[in-house]
């Protein structure tokens, strides 16, 4: 029997600005492997390649706006694919023919990535147990194997795009907690994650009884409302990503090679 990974601990990142794509990638990998600047650099490379292909094909001027990252930190699926390819992981749409076995028996897989509007999160199997690593949650939320299938079906019903992640996942995080660059990641024992989740759920129920506002149960409404609260925190992030894109992307010729 294989030993547990990362000493049996779970790696979770709590939402920072609109960096859910970064949180999603890191929780898939179970460690603080990438920062928003790493993803911005990948997005810049993709944009540069796309512009070069368009220029060579038409010879027309190509606008400089990015199709792979917005200034508020939302990244495209292509960026997530490129980043995870570093670890030989493949992202496959769940509705594709090759993913049909995962549609029937999702519990036999290891990870799913979910996306709707501007929000990304992952559902990951760690040490044989499934968890929802949504960065809008204070801790990973345990999912039974039976509920996993029902939950994925529910997400699909609400319009979420779901991707299967396959490959050889890292068994251990090579980055120590003191070396981690992000301040929003945390390592939790499963029992600590369960305790935090139960405590927050109890607080939400108490708030509901006292008339305080709760998040909508419909997933996309939850993220819309959360996004409103996060907008005020994004100005520094926008400036940092814009600077990163400018540094990483040299000017692209508007004329095809002759």
Automatic annotation (TrEMBL):
One of its GO terms (biological process) is protein deubiquitination. Keywords: Hydrolase, Nucleus, Protease, Thiol protease, Transcription, Transcription regulation, Ubl conjugation pathway. It catalyses: Thiol-dependent hydrolysis of ester, thioester, amide, peptide and isopeptide bonds formed by the C-terminal Gly of ubiquitin (a 76-residue protein attached to proteins as an intracellular targeting signal). Residues 7-180 form the Josephin domain. Coiled coil: none annotated. SMART domains: Josephin. Its EC number is 3.4.19.12. The active site is at 20, 119, 134. It comes from the Eukaryota. It holds the Pfam family Josephin. Its main location: nucleus. It comes from Solanum bulbocastanum (Wild potato). GO terms for cellular component: nucleus. This is ubiquitinyl hydrolase 1. It is found in: Nucleus. InterPro entries: Ataxin-3 (IPR033865), Josephin (IPR006155), UIM_dom (IPR003903). One of its GO terms (molecular function) is cysteine-type deubiquitinase activity.
């Amino acid at each position: 029997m294989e030993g547990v990974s990362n000493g049996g601990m779970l790696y979770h990142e709590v939402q920072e600005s609109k960096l859910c794509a970064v949180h999603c990638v890191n929780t898939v990998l179970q460690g603080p492997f990438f920062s928003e600047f790493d993803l911005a650099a990948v997005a810049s490379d993709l944009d540069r390649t796309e512009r070069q292909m368009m220029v060579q094909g038409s010879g027309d001027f190509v606008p400089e706006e990015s199709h792979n990252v917005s200034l508020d930190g939302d990244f495209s699926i292509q960026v997530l694919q490129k980043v995870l390819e570093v670890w030989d992981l493949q992202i496959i749409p769940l509705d594709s023919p090759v993913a049909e076995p995962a549609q029937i028996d999702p519990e036999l897989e290891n990870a799913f990535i979910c996306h709707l509007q501007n929000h990304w999160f992952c559902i990951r199997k760690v040490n044989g147990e499934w968890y929802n690593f949504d960065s809008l949650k204070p801790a990973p939320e345990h999912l039974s194997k039976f509920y996993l299938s029902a939950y994925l079906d529910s997400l699909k019903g609400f319009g979420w795009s779901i991707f299967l992640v396959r490959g050889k996942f890292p068994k251990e995080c090579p980055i120590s907690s003191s070396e981690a660059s992000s301040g929003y990641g945390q390592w939790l024992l499963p029992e600590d994650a369960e305790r935090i989740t139960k405590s927050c759920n109890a607080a939400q129920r108490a708030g509901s009884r006292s008339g305080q506002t709760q998040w909508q149960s419909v997933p996309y409404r939850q993220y819309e409302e959360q996004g409103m609260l996060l907008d005020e925190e994004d100005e520094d992030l926008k400036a940092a990503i814009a600077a990163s894109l400018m540094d990483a992307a040299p000017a692209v010729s508007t004329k095809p090679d002759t």
